[in-house]
Design a protein that fits this description.
239 residues; 8 helices
Length: 239
């Protein structure tokens, strides 16, 4: 809290981190301009298995970016079985229409900020098929191109499904796909991990002058922790 002990411990921890900095390179944000170039490298219109996989990767990338989500909340864990109760399945998705705007409303599975799923966190992805980068339309295209297998309930099927392995898309598969595509567009320094999508979404929101409350609603932050995710662009600094 705000007592002296808490403040003192925070200062000590900060000092220790400066004395012993992490060896990991700080992740940089994947921004809208990068995603547009990544999109151009994918086959999003074909009918092949590779095209289905590309649509899955694209839907995941823009959902994590525009929904400002932790990737682990959306994907299967590497080496562990997909669990209906703990993972994101298609039964958690519904389409809601308000006026002329249709949205995917996605009820999020348990996560580190809601381990028992008691808070009922969700995200909303507006469907805008006319937008080049839009999570709602990307998910719609993915689901249309890979419908549920016959006899399988939505609650028993992952949202992000790898048509190559015929299993839930894993964190490793998505990370390798993002790194490969970022390298292909000449953004080698961005190819450091999936968290760059969450950082990129946060940075973009901040560039739009989103309020602290809006930032918290997107990223499900109950404090000002989102400040650690936001990068100021050179343009903003010049302004």
């Amino acid at each position: 809290g705000g007592d002296r002990l808490g403040v003192g411990l925070a200062r000590i921890l900060k000092g220790l981190r400066k004395s012993h900095p992490s060896a990991e390179k700080k992740r940089r944000p994947v921004l809208l301009s990068h995603l547009k170039r990544v999109r151009a490298r994918l086959d999003l219109e074909g009918s092949s298995v590779q095209a289905q996989f590309d649509r899955t990767l694209w839907a995941f990338f823009v959902t994590a970016w525009q929904g400002v989500r932790r990737s682990a909340e959306l994907l299967g864990a590497e080496g562990s079985a997909w669990e209906r109760g703990r993972s994101l399945h298609r039964g958690r998705i519904r389409i809601v229409t308000e006026g002329e705007q249709a949205c995917f409303v996605v009820k999020l599975p348990p996560s580190k900020t809601d381990q028992e799923e008691s808070k009922g966190f969700s995200m909303e992805l507006p469907i805008r098929v006319d937008e080049e980068v839009n999570a709602g339309s990307a998910v719609l295209a993915m689901l249309s191109g890979a419908p549920l297998p016959a006899g399988v309930a939505a609650q028993d099927f992952p949202v992000f499904w790898n048509p190559v392995t015929r299993k839930a898309l894993t964190y490793r598969e998505a990370a390798e796909g993002l790194k490969r595509l970022l390298r292909e567009i000449g953004e080698e320094e961005l190819a450091s991990g999936l968290h760059s999508l969450r950082i990129g979404g946060s940075t973009t929101l901040a560039s739009l002058n989103a309020s602290a409350a809006t930032m918290g609603m997107f990223g499900l932050w109950g404090s000002d922790a989102y400040l650690g995710y936001v990068w100021a662009s050179r343009g903003q600094m010049h302004d």
